[in-house]
Amino acid sequence: MNQENNNQTDNPLLVETGFPQFDRVKPEHVIPAIQEILKRVNEQVDQLEAHLVPTWTGLLGPLEQLDIPFEYSWGVVSHLMGVKNSDEFRKAHEAVLADVVQFGLRVRQSPAIYKGLLAIRDGDGWQDLDEAQQRIIEQKIRAANHAGVGLRGEAKEQFNAIVKELSQLKTDFSNHVLDATKAFDFIISDPEATEGWPKTLRQIAAQSWNTVNKESPTATPNSGPWRITLDYPSFVPFMEHHRNRTHREQVYRAHILRASSGELDNSGLIRRILLLRRKQAQLLGYENYAGLSLDSKMAPDVAAVDKMFSELVQAARQPSRKELDELRQLARTSGQAEPLAHWDVPFWAERLREKRFGFTDEQLRPYFPLPRVIEGLFALCTRLFGVTFEKADAVAPVWHKDVQFHRVKNESDETVAWFYLDPYSRPEEKRGGAWMDDCLARCIINGKLRHPVVHLCCNGTPPANGRPSLMSFNEVTTLFHEFGHGLQGMLTTVDYRDAAGINGIEWDAVEIASQFMENWCYHKPTLIGMTKHFETGESLPDDLFEKLCAARTFRAGSMFIRQLEFGMTDMMLHTDYDPDAKTTAFDVHQQIARDLNPLPPLPESRFLCSFNHIFAGSYAAGYYSYKWAEVLSADAFAAFEEAGLEDEAAIASLGRRYRDTILACGGGCDPMKVFHDFRGREPRTDALLRHNGLKSAFAVTRD
Predict the structure, then answer these.
(1) Residues 32 and 94 in one domain
(2) Is 311 a catalytic residue?
(3) Helix (H) / strand (E) containing 431
(4) Is residue 55 a part of any domain in this protein?
(5) Which helix H or strand E contains 498, and what residues bound it?
(6) Full residue range of the structural domain in which residue 69 is found
(7) Among 333-337, 360-364, 565-569, 613-617, whose mean pLDDT is lowest?
(8) Which of 143, 238, 281, 446 could form a disulfide with 292 if both were Cys (CB 3.0 to 4.6 A apart)?
C-alpha cells in the first residue's frame, strides 16, 4: 500500500490517508478537528445502532472504521503531548478531552452494540469465526461490561463522571511530573567540583546550560558552567560520579520530591485517583480495582501475583542485603565517615563496579555510537526474523529534526511496516522514560492492507560538540527493549485492528517481546557486531565484553527488590488500601519499602508523586506485569540458549518460529497458548533467576 500523503486539507488532523502530517499540526488545529470528527462519528454510531446487523461484517467492520479518524487526529495529538508538549497543546487537549472520553463511553455503553456482540457470540455463526475474531468480540463484550454497559440511572451517571474525571487527572498528573522535572536545575561553576565526571556528563551538562542561555551560550565541557537536571541522561551519571555528597543529596532529594509541592503537587491527585478507581470497580461489582484490572490479564487473581512476588522476594532478599553491605564497607574503607545514604548508593555502586570488573560505563560509550547500535540491532533482526530495514526519512513528515523514519521489508523484499525513532532526550518538551506505541495499526481498509506504523521513543544521550550520540549500555538495552515492542507491532500478521500488534494482548504479556530482546545485548556476536569506536573504528575488545557480561548480575538482587517494591506498592494501593483512611498512600509505600529494602527510604520521600506508570499510564494494578512477563521472556530466550547460540542455522529456524508465534499473533490468540506454541511447554522461572545470578527457593511453574 502506498502511504505517501496525497491529500491536503487546511487542517492536517483531518487528513485520513498516508502518514500523519506531524510537521503541519499546530495547537489551533486540535479543537476544530476533534469537534468535526466527533460530530461525524456520532452520526455514524446513530446509523449503526439503528440498522445494526449482528454479524462480523455488519457490526465489527463499522466499529473498526470508527477508529481510523481518531488514529489521524486524537492519536496524533496524544503523541505530540508526549514528545512536543507545550502550554498551547495542553489547553487544546484539555478542551476536547471530556468529549473524546464521552464518545468512547457511548460506544462501549451502547445497548444496541452490546446486544449485537452477544448475538454474534451466542449465534450459529460463532464457530465460523477465526480465533482472533472470537477474541476481539469477547474482549469487546468484557470492555463493555468494564465500561458500565449494565449500569442504569444514578449509578451510570456516577460511573461516567468518574471515567471523565480520571482521564483529566491522569493528564494533570503527567503534566505536573514533566513540569516539575523541567523546573529543577543545579548549576555548577567550579571546575574542581566536576573532578571525576565522565566526559559525556560534562558535554551534556554544558550543552544543557547553553540551551537555557541561548542568548549567550558560553558553556564548554571543560570550563562550564554545567547544568544538572532531573532528566535521566543528566541525573543518573551525576549521582554515579559527582564526589560532593552535599550536592548529590540536593539533587537526590529533588528527584524523590518531584511534583509533591506547590501548584504541581500530585499528592491530592493520588488520593483522588485511588478513590475514584475503587468506586469505579465497586460500581461494576468488583471488590477493588485490582480485581477489575486483573479481569483482563493473564494472572488469574491477586493471589497468583502475590505468589510470584513471594518467590522472587525469597530469591532476592538476601543477595540485596549482601550487596548493600558491600557498598557500606567500600564507602567506609574509602574514607566516608557518614553512614551510607540513598544519595551515596549510586556513587559507591559505580566505584564497586569499576573495582570489581575493571571498567567504567564511560569506557563503553565510545564503542556505542547510536548509528552503529542501530545497524547491529537491524542485523540481529535480519538474522532472527528475516526482515530488513532501510532509511525512509524523506517519505513521512516528522515532529522533530532528530526523528528517524524507516521502512521494514520481509524476505521477499516487500514492505511490511514502518517506524519512527525519536532517540534523544528533550526535557523541555518530551516526557521522560522510553515507550513504544502504535501510530497506525495494521488493518484492511477498502479491501486493501494498511501496513502498521509504530512510534519508538527514547530519552537517550543526545549528540554533543560534533560527536554522535554515545550511548550508555543501559541506553542500548533500553533501545533493544522498546524495539522488541516495536517488532510485535510491526511483524504482526493479524489483519484486524483490535488484535494486530500489541492491541488485544493481555497487559501482563505485553512485555515478553521487549524483555526478550534485551538478552541479545549479552550475546557476543551481536554485541561486538554493533560496536564501533566512534574515533578509531575498533570493535569492543574481548576483555571489555567479558567484563560487561561478568557485571550483568551486579546488584541483581537490589534491582529485583526495587521492581518488587514498585509492583507490591501498586498492588497494595489497589487492593487493601482505603484512600479514606488516615493512612496515606505514602505510608503504604514506606511500609513495603522498609520491609523489603535493607536501606529504609527517607520518611519524606514522595516517589509516588512521580510514579507515572500507575497514576498516569496503563500499569495501575499491573506494574507486576514487568516481572510476570520477564519470567516468560527469559524462558523464551532460554530456548535459543538450548538450541546453541552459535548455531546460526538453528537460531535462524528458532527465530522464524518466534516471529511466527509471539511476534505475529498479537492479541489474536491467548498469550499462554502462543508461548506454548513457541516453547512447547509451560513457562518456568529458573531461566530468569539464572540470568540474574539468583537461586530460586522454590521450583514453581507459572500456570
Answers:
(1) yes
(2) no
(3) none
(4) yes
(5) none
(6) 12-108+110-146
(7) 360-364
(8) 281
